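REQUEST ID: PR-0412
SUBMITTED BY: lab tech R.K.
PRIORITY: routine
TASK: structure prediction, single protein chain
INPUT:
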Amino acid sequence: MPKYNNVLLIDDNEVNNLLHERLIELSDFGKHVKVIQHAPDAIQYLLQVANQPESIPDIIFLDIRMPIMDGFGFLDEFQKMPDSIRRNTKIILLSSTLDPNDNARAALYPEVIKMMIKPLNMGQLASL
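STATUS: complete
OUTPUT:
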């Protein structure tokens, strides 16, 4: 049985998205995986499903470094979302390197439960 019902991946890197989506499916980490490449599109998606509890992500894997809007810009917008979304959604930040400044910034957002180096692997998913 999957650990989470809905998982949202937000990353501009198509290869990472394919890898992470497949890993989540193979590990039985998530039942439904939604992939969105740009943070503004993810914000629109979340606002569209705000009144559909069955579609709201339980967990979001969010890349920090993206064009158009980075992960921290997304987090700022996430703070403004309805409680129906924020209440039960946890966020894991993904980065190719762990920058101490990113850790300090991430600590300001209560929804962020962890930072992980990408690409993800089975061990990282099991640790959640």
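NOTES: The helical segments are 14-26, 39-48, 71-78, 83-86, 100-106, 122-127.
REVIEWED BY: pending
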